[in-house]
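lol ok so funny story. i was supposed to be doing the assay writeup but got distracted and ended up predicting the structure for this chain instead. priorities right. anyway since i did it might as well share w the group, maybe its usefull for someone
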Amino acid sequence: MEDAIPTPTPLYDKMTLESELQEEMEVGAGYYQTIIGSLSYTATTTHPDIAFAVSALSHYNSRPFTSHLTAAKRVLLYLKETANLKLVFSHIPITVTNIEIHGLQL
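and the output, tada:
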């Protein structure tokens, strides 16, 4: 994974994840669950941008196949690519004037 090329998106948009794959090998559920657990913690605490991908991959915790593991590793590569990105919150107060919500003037 150290020499792998980082990716700009957490999941490939054309990827189809299925629970029953005849032509693929099953991978160790413990190993897969460890990766998904770590990604879930990361999505909850610092990277909400991977939440959808982690949620989709967590459906296969009980019986993961190689395509699921490959997709999980892609999320790890995405985190490698975006390691320097961060959310910045400004200390400048935001004032809003003349708001109309459902016909009510605020």
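Residues 29-105 form one domain. The chain has a mean pLDDT of 83.
back to the writeup now i swear
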